[in-house]
Amino acid sequence: MLRATCIILSRLSPSSSSRRCYCIRRCFLHATNSLRFASIDNDKKEKVKSDDLKVDMADLEEALKRDEMPTDYKENIRKLKEQKKGIREIFTGKLAMVIVGVSIILAIILSGLREKKMRELEKERKQTIGKARIGGPWELLDMDGKLGGSEQLKGNWLLLYFGFTHCPDVCPDSIEKMVEVVEILEKSEEKIKVIPIFISVDPERDTVKRVKEYCAEFSPKIKGYTGSKEQVAKVAKAFRVYYSQGPKADGNDYIVDHTVIMYLMDPDGDFHDYYGQNRSAQEIARVIKLKVFKRDMMQNKKKLWFY
């Protein structure tokens, strides 16, 4: 604008030189003032914008304090909170799954180690019993006069009783109790089968025929065994059974003093337990039932667990 004004004034006549200088001066001053005022206006506008921004920020802070922020701000903050909550829930859920999984794995490992330890203890127990030589392989004459014994009876639970056929009272009572135990177990819900075994400690009088007749008086389930003095002595020693022939009276009449105990053998032919005269048939049956149950549980776990 200033330039255009100067060009117009330059084209005026020379006579108006003084006036021309005056006009130029006026135009220059006007232009300078215009620029200065424009600059002032811009500064004022920038200041106004800055002041407005400060006011807006102050209002926002005040609104935050009063929980009166705009709806769109609230919505954005709510969404952010929900996202954080969702992420936290996902993380917590996965962490819980990992913890549960690790716990299950540890439980399985510990259970396996515990079962392995139990089997080792059971093996040591059997080895200890074996060292004490309670039970073990044995062979005598059965009621048919044939050699037989522990090997032929394997796979069955056995109750062994050592006595003699001429026993006046102790042996009959013990054999009747043994038969009662067997019947209780067979009639139980588990239907446990136990074979009653009678072994004579009087080889001098107890022949195969005599033992067969004697056992039949109590139960057809009883399997009777006898043998020579050497054979009977060997079996009695294996089971730590004491027996001693008393003095003979008239003819061939005498009493044999002997251990009054029933021995429980498991299907592997190993000694498991023993029961004296003070135990009733019901008590013995209950104990045997627990023994059978425990062994079956161990056998089943052994089949299921592998290494």
Describe the structure.
- Mean pLDDT is 78; it is low at 2-10, 12-24 and 303-307.
- This protein is 61% helix and 12% strand.
- With 307 residues, the chain is α/β, with parallel strands linked by helices.
- The longest helix is centred in the first third of the chain and has 62 residues, at 71-132.
- Helix 5 crosses helix 8 (281-304).
- The protein is rod-shaped and about 125 Å long.
- Strands 5-4-3-8-9 form a five-stranded mixed beta sheet. The chain has a two-stranded antiparallel sheet with strand order 1-2.
- It contains eight helices and nine strands.
- The chain has three domains: 2-64, no CATH class; 71-132; 139-304, 3-Layer(aba) Sandwich (Glutaredoxin), CATH 3.40.30.
